[in-house]
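Hi R.,

As promised on Friday, here is the backbone we talked about, encoded as structure tokens. Could you run it through your design pipeline when you get a chance and send me back a sequence?
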């Protein structure tokens, strides 16, 4: 209903502009131009039965009230309004007709007419055009909030279509999309990664409209969510396809797989696939992962690599298992790291409990088909699993956590002990291409020193006080105000 009201209000605004523009014509000519869909250009054309304020003629030839004044059969009227809106706009193909305001459970409507009427009245109190908003993207932000609210309540199912915003922000900052580029998400979900890519371009002073956004999703209802989300964020240069990306990739142009400047994704973790049902097998140049045992993860990575331009970069969320499992997956890893200087630029370990429906930590693979010479044959490891903000149900990445990860990936030679390290291919080979992050960057804190004599006799070991000397010095604190000499190795607290 939010989407329907928005489309109607923007259409009304455009119609008023046209009325002023053609004001010198006679009323009949103006009326004809205002009902000509070609007059509206890039603005979505809203047919009469989908307009909030206009009466229309029904199928039986009788006059029907405007949507805002509908009193009975509201669910059916809304369904027909959405269907009419979709039929008049190619970009909305497959988006609205499946939505059913008349849905029933055990013969009873899920939403009563009285509740629908309350919603109609509520939306009638505001005009949803950009000039009325505090910022142009306000409605998109509101829709994003609703999606997150639904994902929160959906638990594990929410993770199938929604990636937490801070994780998306990290992926986007790692890729740094630029004006004029193309961005592709092969498992697009609710479209958040494409939206944040456009927002990043705008933040950098670029034109977000000069960005080609494409995606594919295997859930028809989620395709609808994605398209509406993008449109409500004022993004129109979009192409969202419906289908299984591994089985039937639809980023095809001129009979060949279309390639992009940036590819970004959070594919479904640990699922099966069937190679015999996959089209365009030439995507999988590094080999085929086992078809059973829920190991399709590296197949998604290979599709992303095949969809990248030779100068392109990608970022993808992956379960940790792809970093160390043996067999066919190890062979794929080895080829990705060895051939042509390697196509994996960095591996980043994330904190636990960031994602919906799972507490296990995940990782990010940064892909680069054109690594600079000084990074060829090398791989950056970042162990960021200990730095995050704690939430009630989920943890989250703080802005400073995101900026730190971005910095070390952008400056890989400046390793931070216990956090990041650039590793040569030879070391990876010695470890049999096991990419377990802690093997290369161990952030386990040093164990506390134990003094058995102090445990038995009491007292404070002198070595413990000496170890804190630097911290105590920052506060200009003298330990002799608190402890005194006891013997050669121990101190006692003053009484």
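Update: got your reply. Pasting your designed sequence below so it's all in one thread:
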């Amino acid at each position: 209903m939010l989407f329907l009201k928005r489309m109607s209000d923007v259409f009304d605004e455009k119609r008023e502009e046209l009325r002023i523009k053609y004001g010198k014509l006679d009323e009949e000519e103006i009326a004809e131009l205002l009902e000509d869909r070609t007059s509206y250009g890039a603005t979505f054309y809203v047919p009469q039965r989908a307009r909030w304020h206009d009466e229309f003629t029904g199928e039986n030839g009788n006059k029907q009230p405007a949507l805002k004044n509908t009193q009975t059969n509201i669910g059916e009227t809304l369904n027909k309004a959405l269907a009419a809106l979709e039929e008049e706009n190619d970009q909305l193909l497959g988006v609205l007709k499946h939505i059913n305001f008349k849905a029933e459970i055990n013969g009873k409507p899920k939403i009563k007419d009285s509740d629908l009427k309350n919603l109609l009245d509520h939306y009638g109190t505001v005009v949803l055009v950009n000039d009325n908003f505090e910022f142009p993207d306000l409605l998109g932000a509101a829709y994003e909030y609703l999606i997150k609210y639904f994902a929160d309540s959906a638990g594990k199912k929410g993770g199938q279509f929604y990636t937490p915003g801070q994780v998306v922000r990290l992926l986007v900052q790692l890729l740094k999309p630029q004006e004029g580029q193309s961005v592709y998400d092969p498992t697009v979900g609710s479209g958040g990664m494409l939206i944040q890519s456009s927002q990043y371009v705008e933040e950098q002073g670029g034109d977000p409209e000069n960005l080609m956004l494409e995606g594919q999703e295997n859930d028809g209802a989620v395709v609808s969510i994605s398209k509406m989300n993008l449109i409500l964020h004022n993004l129109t240069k979009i192409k969202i396809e419906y289908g299984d990306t591994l089985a039937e990739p639809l980023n095809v142009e001129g009979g060949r797989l279309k390639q992009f400047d940036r590819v970004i994704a959070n594919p479904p973790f640990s699922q099966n696939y069937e190679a015999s049902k996959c089209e365009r097998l030439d995507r999988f140049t590094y080999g085929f992962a086992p078809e059973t045992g829920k190991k399709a993860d590296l197949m998604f990575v290979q599709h992303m690599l095949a969809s990248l331009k030779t100068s392109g970069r990608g970022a993808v969320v992956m379960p940790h298992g792809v970093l160390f499992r043996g067999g066919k997956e190890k062979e794929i890893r080895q080829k990705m790291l060895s051939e042509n200087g390697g196509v994996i630029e960095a591996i980043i370990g994330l904190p636990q409990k960031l994602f919906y429906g799972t507490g296990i930590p995940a990782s990010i693979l940064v892909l680069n088909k054109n690594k600079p010479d000084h990074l060829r044959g090398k791989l950056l490891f970042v162990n960021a699993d200990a730095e995050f903000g704690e939430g009630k149900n989920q943890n989250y990445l703080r802005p400073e956590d995101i900026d730190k990860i971005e910095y070390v990936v952008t400056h890989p030679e400046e390793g931070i002990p216990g956090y990041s390290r650039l590793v040569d291919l030879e070391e990876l080979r010695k470890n049999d291409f096991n990419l377990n992050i802690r093997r290369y960057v161990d952030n386990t804190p040093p164990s506390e020193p134990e003094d058995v004599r102090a445990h038995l006799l009491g007292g404070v070991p002198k070595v413990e006080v000496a170890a804190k000397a630097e911290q105590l010095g920052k506060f200009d604190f003298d330990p002799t105000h608190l402890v005194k000499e006891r013997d050669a190795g121990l101190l006692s607290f003053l009484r």
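One thing I noticed while checking it: The mean pLDDT is 91.

Thanks again,
M.
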